[in-house]
Amino acid sequence: MRTVPTVRFLWLLALSIVMTLNTAQARSYPDFTELVEDASPAVVNISTRQEPKSRQRLQFHEFNRDLPDIFRDFFGKPFPPPGKGNKTPAHSLGSGFIVSQDGYVLTNNHVISGADEIIVRLKDRRELEAKVIGADERSDLVLLKIEASDLPVVKVNTRAVIKPGQWVVAIGSPFGFEASVTAGIVSATGRNLPSENYVPFIQTDVAINPGNSGGPLLNLEGEVIGINSQIYTRSGGFMGLSFAIPMDVAMDVVKQLKDKGYVSRGWLGVMIQGMNKALAESFDLEKPMGALVAEVLESSPAEKSGFKSGDIILQFDGQEIKESSDLPYIVGRTPVGKQVNVDILRKGEKQTLTVTIGELPDKRQAVDKRQSKDQISSNRLGITVKTLTTDEKEQSDLAYGVVVDKVLDGPGRDVGLRPGDFITDIYNEKVDSAESFNEIVDKLPANKSIPMRLVRHGKPGYITFKITDE
Predict the structure, then answer these.
(1) Could you read off the pLDDT of 52-106 as tens digits, one per residue?
(2) Exposed (0-12), middle (13-18) or buried (19+): which is 335, by Cβ within 10 Å?
(3) Annotated catalytic residue: which of 136, 140, 326, 405?
(4) Model confidence pLDDT, tens digit, residues 342-371
(5) 185: closest CA among 161, 212, 203, 201?
(6) Residue 442: its pLDDT value, please?
C-alpha cells in the first residue's frame, strides 16, 4: 500500500523535470516578434504588368516530358506557347523594402525585368506606381522610386559580422501571402554561384519561395544584412538552400545607381579556373589554392601588364586568393584606374606584376575584341561558339564539339544556354567546328522539333526545342 504514493511522487517529479527542461529549452530560442513589428512596415509587395508580345521566336517542345532530369535545374521552366489572340497581360510578384523616407525601394532585378508597369504595395494598403532609377543585371538588383514622403525605412547594416550558425529572419510575400515571416540560420558565407561571379552570397536555410525575391534578410538586431535573391531547387519550391545578396554589395550598387544610373566594376581581363589537387601538384603547390589563368583577353589590362596563360594568381592587392571564385568579386570591387600589385606563380617561381584596373565591359556589348572567325554569331540562335582546342577536348573528354562563348539576346538565351556549355550534336549531326555549327543552324527547319546534345558540368543530355522564324 505504501508503494502507491511513492510511484505517484516519482511520476510527479519526472513530470516536473520534463516541464522545467522544456521551459528552459523554449527560453533558449529567440523571440522574433519585436524585430518583425519594427521591420515589416518598410517591407513592400511588388507586382508588375507586362503586355503580351505578338509572337515568340522559340518554344520548348513538350518540355516536361523530353528534358532530362539533369537539365531541369539548369533550364528552369519553359515559356508557354503564346495563344492566338491572347491579350492577357503577364504578371509577376515579388518583395522589396524601403531604404529611404523619400521613397527609394530596393528589390531584385528579375522581379521587375521586362515590366511595363511596376506597382508597390505598402503595409498600410497604399498602392503606388514605381519608376526604375537604375538596374544592375550582374548583381540582380534594381533601385525603384515611389512618390511619397515620411515612409518607414529598414535599418541597414553594411558592416554586420555574419557567421554560420547565427539566427536570421526573412520577410516577404511568398506565393502572394504578404508579410510572411520565416526564420532559420546562416549556413555559409561567401558562396559563389555558377550564374554570378560578382556576389559573395549568404547561404541560409530560411524558407524562401517564389514571391520572397527582393525581400530583406534580417539579423536578431532587426538590421537588414542581405536581400533574398535565389534558391536551389529541384521542385520549384524551397529545399533548404537559400541565397541572399550581402548589404555591403547592395548598398554600393544603390549608391552607383543613384549617382550615375549604372554600376562600374573593375576588370582584369583573364579567364580563370579553379585549382584541384592534381593541378596543384603539377604546378608544385603544396595545396590547391589561387586562380589559374586559362586565357588572357586581348587588349585587356592583364595582357598589357604581362599576364600569361598558366599563371596562378595567389594574391590580388594584398588579399589572398584562396579559391578562384574569390578573384572576380575582389577585382570587381577595385576602383577603375587603380594600380594594384598581383602576386603570381609562374613556372614554379613567384613574381609580382603591377596592373592598372580597367572597367568591366557592359553585358550588352554583343561583340568584343576577342571576336574571330571561330566566334560567329548565329542569326537564328543568337550565340557565339568556339571550336574546341586539343587541350579542351582532353580536359572535357570530348572527341568533337564546340563551346558556347557568348549568349546574346535571342533564342539561345531563351532556351537557357550558358557560356561554357559544350554542344556536340544538333539535329542528329556532329558538330566539329564553329563553322559547321553555324552551317547546320542556318539550315534548321522551322516549326520542327530539333534535338541538341549538350554537356554541362560533365553531364551529357539532350534537349528538344522548336525554332519559329519571324
Answers:
(1) 654 444 444 433 444 455 444 444 444 444 444 445 565 668 999 999 999 999 9
(2) exposed
(3) 140
(4) 999 998 899 999 999 999 987 544 334 334
(5) 203
(6) 85
Q: 399 CB contacts (<8 Å, ≥6 apart)?
A: 393
What pTM, to 2 d.p., does this model score?
Answer: 0.66
- Between the CA atoms of 372, 375, 378 and 381, what dihedral angle is there, to the nearest 10 degrees? -150
DSSP 261-278: SS---EE--EEEE---HH
CA-nearest of 30, 48, 26, 38 to 171 is 38
Q: Which amino acid is at 201?
A: F
What pLDDT does residue 447 have? Answer: 77
Neighbours of 269 (CB within 10 A): 23
Amino acid at position 189, single letter? T
Selection from 465, 191, 421 nearest residue 323 by Cα: 191
CA count, 13 A, side-chain hemisphere, 170 = 32
Asked if 130 and 145 count as a contact pair (C-beta separation under 8 A), the reply is yes
- Residue 213 annotated among the catalytic residues of the structure: yes
The Cα–Cα gap between 420 and 458 comes to 11
Say how many Å lie between the first and final Cα of the chain, rounded: 95
The C-alpha angle with vertex 264 and arms to 258 and 265, in degrees rounded to 5, equals: 140
Choice among 92, 95, 180, 213 that is catalytic: 213
Vertex 306, ends 304 and 309: CA angle to 5°? 115
Among 110, 173, 325, 343, the one annotated catalytic: 110
* H-run or E-run covering 439: helix 434-442
Mean pLDDT of 108-128: 93
Amino acid at 415: V
Q: Using CA atoms, how far apart are residues 241 and 261, in angstroms rounded to an integer?
A: 32
Cell numbers describing residue 452: 541538341
Buried-state track 194-204, b at ≥16 Cβ within 10 A, e below 16: eebbbbbbbbb
Strand locations in 322-390, DSSP E? Answer: 339-346, 349-356, 358-359, 383-387
For residue 162, the tally of other CB atoms under 10 A from its CB is: 20
> Residues 398-454: pLDDT tens digits?
888 999 888 776 677 777 788 888 999 888 789 988 888 888 888 888 877 677 788
